[in-house]
Protein 1
Amino acid sequence: MMSSSDDKDKAELIAKMKRTKEQWDREALDSEDGPDETDALLSQAISMAIEQGRGWSSPEEREKYLEQLLDDDYIPPLFAENQEELEKSGLKDAFTTLHNEGETPGKNMLDFRKKGNDSIALGRKNVAKNLQYYRDAVNHYYAAFHWASRIVPKDEGFAPTPEELEAAKEDPFFNEKELNELKSIICSNCAMAHLCLKNWGFVRDESKKAVDYNSKNIKAWYRLAKAHEMLQNWDEAGNAIESGLEVEKDNKEILQLQKKLDKRIRKARVLRQQRERARAERTSRIKDVWRHTKQDNI
């Protein structure tokens, strides 16, 4: 049995793992390319390890584990390149469980979307610690999108049997339109989490993805316009505002943003038109010179 000293060491180790995870999450969010699917899965793996903990039933088991880590032939499961290496790591079952957590891509997608929504809600309630909740939300939404990308949509005319309907409780199915709408919601929600963190470039990118999957997503159009406002891309902000109003002409938030940015948008468009006219004039003059030299064999 583990002593009280061992219990204390274990608690300190888990606390250190939590701090390290939070630091890695922040670094992934602050990186130029932002967190990717690998970052999300790594964050998920660490969370699972923290939740389950790592204990030893005896000092001998602990020593055996430490010896394994120091073995030159030992390959951590995260870096295993094939099934044989994963089996040698001794953690095949744990990683298989992690990979299949939730059992199906559809269920995993919905579960991670809910976790993201819950983190957003917690962030709004806990102002003092809300940044970490929003970072957690981003990672959950990235994981949700990862699983959504693994779902094979059913054909539009798919008619499920009673057995398939029953199985759908654990393995939900979607046609392409439904799946795209869900992906749009996930990306738009991810944009919202980034908005709370003021990561305006990521707000823009996730909102663009959201409207690509569903051009009727009014929240995504607003968030895209808001991102362009904060990035001072006035012309692009105007385009997002106009696209959003085509979906919902009376949307209060977008109308307020349109009123706020109207002068800047109009000025940006006048400047763009001036640049385009100047470019067209230069191109025309170059063509005239080229035509002249060709006619005179110069």
Protein 2
Amino acid sequence: MGTSEDEESGRVSMSTIFRKVLKTTWVLINVLVLIALPLCAWDMWKHNLETHYIAWFVGGVFVLLALPITFYQVAQHLENYRMPRLQRHVIRILWMVPIYAVDCWLALRFKEYTIYFDTIRECYEAYVIYSFFTYLTVYLQEFCNPGLEQMVSRKPQQGHVWPLSFVLAPPRMGEPFLRLCRHGVINYVVMRPLTTTLAFITEANGVYGDGQILNPTVAFPYLTLINNFSQAWAMYCLILFYKVTHEELAPIHPFAKFLTVKAVVFLSFWQGQCILLLVKMKVIRVKETWTDYDAADVATGMQEFAICIEMFFAAVAHAYAFPPSEYATGVQQMAPQRKFLDNVGDMFDLRDVYHDVVNFSESNRERAMRKWERIKGVLTAMRYGMQAPLGAAAQGGDVALQSIQAYSRLED
């Protein structure tokens, strides 16, 4: 018995040493590559290699540096898959780096297919926002006492921020507040694929106009406006949820997680808009070394190049924000170990997303029907008030007024 425990302890010790050596070696390789990279880029530029090929090479190096970091983190989570309901969403978030990095690297090289690469990336962006929100709610459902809805109902009223506070009434704490946050996030998950489909259709018909943000005759500015509003609302709902629950989420260090997700999603978007604006204002000029690139292509290419580089730092940030060690200590360590291949299968199980989208659609349909029934009641009461004799009309007007007031108090 003692010999078996000693052998197990020895294997754990060797595994720990091996991982430390691997991490140290990887850090040294990264340092050497980062030192050599500017020298290689300078040498290629000196020999008149076209700018976008240099960018493709430099971006590719950063992509190759980023991918192993994420793959290692995903493998570690799958090896320590003690809390599937939580870690499933963590792994989905971690996959953001490889998908963003490879997608942008390919878009940088094959600019004629940029619309397809970018829309795939942006659809996954919506999926990441949904996964992060679900990660937080699952944690609170698992560890909050009392339950999540009861906990939120006891919180002080959370109003909307300025200027939304002038036009939107604050949701009642409890189930209405949670519904607002969840529906705001899922709305982006539903809206993003719809606008992607429209982008493909308009591109096939030659009216998409990628990057032509000021051209009213193409679809790009309108689809961009819809996507931006939907994304901003989803992030806003996520912020509201965090403000209300940050104390209960403290054990999982939510701020670092929230910051890494928001930085990749939100800042990358505004980075792209700033680059596009600078190119349109000719602060950034199109050079001859970009060959057949026009102004819109240059703006898109610079955005893809920047994301390729940033994903390396995002991979490092994710490694610290979502460490596998959170699920390999304490009570979680006592959970039974699952087979690695079963964990991989669970990682790709999307039934929870499907059920949430279906519930979202059904809930919206039911709420629309209830609103319509109340509107019909108001219209009927108003018609009765106009058609009845004077005395009855006064009574009907009172009924109509009461109906309107009741409708105005309807909680979304």
Protein 3
Amino acid sequence: EQIKHTTDLIIQSTTPLKSKHKHNAFRITMKPCQTLFLSIAWVASASGASFIPSGTCSSATKSRTSSRSTRSFLYLPDEAAAGKNNVSNGKANDETSLVNNGKMGRVSMVGSGPGDPELLTIAAAKIITDPDALIIADRLVSPEIIAMCKGEVRTARKLPGCADKAQQEIYDWCREGLMDGKHVVRLKIGDPFVFGRGGEEVLEFRKMGVEPKVIPGVSAAFAAPLLGGIPVTHRGISNQVVMCTGYGRNGTSPDLIQYHKEQTVVFLMAVGRLRELCDNLCNLANYPRDTPVAVVEKAGCPEQRTVVGDLNTIADYCIRYEIKPPSTIVVGEVVDVLLNEGVGSMEERVQGLVDMAVASSDVVPAASD
């Protein structure tokens, strides 16, 4: 149950050990507002027996409150305390493993790609169609892919301003599934390890006592430009690609790479601050104002749209056409390679929505506040 003060709990087995050892208890130091999910499993070893804290809880006490800060100390037989069973001097790691009496759950971290179900890997498609899985999905995973899922689906509402709270909810859901011995599927947009907190989540799962199986996904950093008709590299135009996020830690703006004519920069999760990004590219990274820019919205989905412009106009176009996440921003001369093949002047360059484009000489009305 939840406690209000720092408390030392002594847990003692009601079943006597079938060995000569008398040690059958361990202590847990809990901090205020933590909730304990715990059961005891005896684990026999060559040196004796020891307690393993586990994640079993009854339906009456089940909660999504995190217990990951629980600190446990195992009192082991003297021989075991000498260093066996991954303990030292009777102390265990700071984080309690979620072992359900040998029926511990497992985690798969799956990349769902940019949104088109046909761009899923075969491995990803097999995992998300497991009817017994608990699928914990990112908010921006496409409805078409969510519709393929056969098990229970929970979607994290990770909106601006509450990302950390939603991330904690994700961890709580995963912990709950592991405690119930389920196959937890962490379904992520794009590729889990490309600006998706994938590495952070692996470290968190390790604290829970599990090593996730990671399934790669097609990253929008490369798939979205391709689906929008933009090659991120092109001989004589671009010989390098830089991937950036629009948001650093705690909502900060990331440092920008200085302008190079033969360079493509792809921004993920940045459409919400597009105007600020364009200004920073010009003022801080020395980009010319007429550098071509494209925004590909919902790449690979039936609603996909591509908007093109330059650093002066693209933010206004995106407001005019109500471009929303998930969107991928491409900055560089490659934007024009296929779209404006044979165009001889800047005035003739296509801008606006690709399927309803306007000449760049047309006036783009400034967005109203």
Protein 4
Amino acid sequence: SPSSHTIPAHRPINLASSPSITMAAIASSASVAPQVVRSTKAIAPSRAALAIKPTRARRGVTVAARAALYFPGETAYIEQIASDYPEKGIANWEEARCLFSELGYNILDIRSEWEIDSVGNFPRELPSDHKSGAKIYTVPLINARAQYDSDAGKKVVKDQQPNRDFMNQVKKIFPDTNAKIIICCSDGRNRAIQALEALDEAGYVNIVGLRGGYNMWNRTWDAKLRRRNLPGDFQEEYQHGADGCGVHATGASFQNQDAFQYPDWKDDTDWIDWSA
């Protein structure tokens, strides 16, 4: 069953309590600088706003830049994240790792089975610095398969079908609506928002969306939850919008260079509306 941890007092997310503030506010930037805002029921219009553009790291890693990164055991960072969530609503890949490994937030991967098989999965074995006891669960929001499309020149998603048993499966895993849950799809821009709406309507209060989804998480953390791009004198991140490449300027060790092989982090699939 999901683990329970005590977090400094803060108000849980309530997507219905603040109609004047939308989730678009928390998606205004790809930076890891904290912005304390609230979510509301007006999530759907924010999907376009979540199509953020991660920025290229600049020369030199400052103290402020390091302060925005998660490292196991760094008390000040952990305490800040604990005070920010779940009210902040959307966590980037650094914040989500802290929530998962330090603060007892389980990961709910809502991608389809073929995505997990072909793109990648969250770690099946967790490292020793994962202290919280939180786990990773998989419940697809939309079932689909991939098929090669000669016009597109690549595999595209076919036969999308909503998983009508999604909420029943979630409730079976998390019977307590106070369970701490990070909701993750491919890129955090569509299905995660739909799932956040569904869980909020079901009464779950400690729910957080993963900005950038699995694609951005996987660029940052490898299968053993080690950081792929280690901070150095100069770091380049090969994300959407990056304008250069090369391994010698990164400050990262060669064993982590697989981070540079990934395509655009955005999922260009036109996912159906699960609730329709």
